[in-house]
Amino acid sequence: MNTLEIKDKKEKESVAAAVATEELSGSQILLKGLIAEGVDTIFGYPGGAIMPIYDALYDFKKELNHVLVRHEQGATHAAQGYARSSGKVGVVFATSGPGATNLITGIADAQIDSTPMVCITGQVFAHLLGTDAFQETDVINITTPITKWNYQVTDAAEIPEVLAKAFYIAKSGRPGPVLIDITKNAQIQKVEFEGYEKCKHIRSYRPYPIIRNKYIEQAAELINSAKKPFVLFGQGVLLGNAEQEFKAFVEKSGIPSAWTIMGAGAIPTDHELNVGMLGMHGNYGPNVLTNECDVLIAIGMRFDDRVTGRLDKYAKQAKVIHLDIDPAEIDKNVKAEVPVWGDCKETLPLLTALVDEKVHTEWLAKFREYTQAEVDQVIDAECNPTEGELTMGEVINQLNILTKGEAIIVTDVGQHQMVACRYAKLNNTRSNITSGGLGTMGFALPAAIGAKFGAPNKTVVAVIGDGGFQMTIQELGTIMQSGIDIKIIILNNQFLGMVRQWQELFNDRRYSFVDITSPDFVAVAKGYYISGQKVTERPQLVDALKTMLNHKGSYLLEVMVTKENNVFPMVPQGCSVSEIRLK
Amino acid sequence: MDSNIEKKEFNITVYTENHVGLLNRIAIIFSRRKLNIESMNTSPSEVESIHRFNIVLVETEDVVRKVARQLEKQVEVLKVYFNTNEDVIWQELALYKVPTDVIAEKASVERLLRQYGARAVVIRKDYTVFETTGHREETDALVAVLQPYGLIEFVRSARVAIIKHSDGFHAKLREFERLEPGEAELGNEYLNQGEKIFTM
Question: What is the fold of B7-87?
Answer without folding.
Answer: Alpha-Beta Plaits (3.30.70)
